[in-house]
Input
Amino acid sequence: MYQVFPDRFAPPDAPPPPAPPRRARPWSKTPRKGRYLPSAGVWSHELHVWGGTLTGVRAHLDHVAALADVLYLNPIHDALTNHRYDARDWTRVDPLLGTRDDVVALAEDLHRRGLRLMLDGVFNHLGRTAPAFQRALTHPDAPERAWFDLDARYTHGARSWFDVFNLPEVRLEHPAVRKLAFEGPDSVVQRWLREGADGWRLDVAHDLGPALCAAIRQGARAAKPDAWVVGEVWNDPRGWLDTLDGVLNMHLRVLLLELVDGTLAPARFGRLLERHLADAGIEGLLRSWLVLDNHDTPRLASRLPKPWQRRLAQTLQLALPGSPVLYYGVEIGMTGDGDPTNRAPMRWDEVPGHPELERLRTLLDLRRRLPALRFGDATVLDGEGLVAFTRHTDRVEETVLVLVNPGPEPVTERLALRDPRLMSGSPLEDALHPGETVHVDAGTVRVSVPARGARLLTPRMPPAWGYDPYRRLLQD
Output
């Protein structure tokens, strides 16, 4: 999956002038933190726009298609800020980005390439400038007053997400709001699915709660039976996977990054990973997104500044259960410690021949060629200085033994494989380093992994006319 922050992905040919208080910025300028504007309840840098458009996204779909099979867009609806998590109108595309027709055309272009489109649903709150909220504030008899929890005891006169002045929360339990957002064929969720979107990422799904997440998923299914609804959940995923198709697996992100930066020892990571698999379940994890960075976190190259750290992190991201999410610019090592520097304009001039892009393409090619990495089960092995686990399907020849050594010295260990199908004496070949093999020995294997290295070992099947210890397993 490839994530795009629409305002910063593709430079416009002729950007439309933004209406005040928004201010245009040149593509070459890096975002910097501004000052707080009390009257608007936003920071000045939230009003700076770089002019990216949906047409610009369409122009770069070949790049996206080479890296992912799903495009996920941050919010596209009309809003005050550049991030658009403060919607004025859920039903209207921000004119700076384009029109509804542009979204439909984007979906059609993606589908022709075999890709899908995920939209960002921000239904927990609106922006303070939303006409519905302004009517609620200024008209005592307005029906929209029932959409919000208005009370002078709240810091800003209304219950707001994280007590942010600009983000009044919406009562999604109210019938009129439910009808507008997700219930009925004319709702935002259902209409976009009928017009070409393939699923929704639910912003702050942990604030929506399980019941509303389930109701939104039900609404999505009514419009498109195979729609995919994934929630932004910063909690332990278990319990949420019953009401959503998947979550943003931020839990596993924390563990993975701390393994690579040396905070977590490999053996400790293995125990936590095994518990995570048992608690969340493989089916829910396979449907979830495995995120290393996004618009809310430091960029990967800032969080892990050394190239070997990013190489190991992305190897694990593509080998662990889940759908790996690539935040635009990660393929060229873009940096940014947090909002707003992690939302800088895409540096297209750095794309051709970039070493991080070439390495990532190699890993993605392996993931495409090894089915177990995409939809296989996972079994954690008992390593000490190594992270070791297998990904496996019902076909033994698709098994992948994943080994990662984040330490500064080579590690050699004997591992119990925990798979009775792997035949003693049979070779396992390294998909990352073709020609390098080890041999199974009575259900175990002795492996060596170089410092800060990784190996992906797969069974090497015997030639058609030679001795084949797997012949009857493969027949079954």
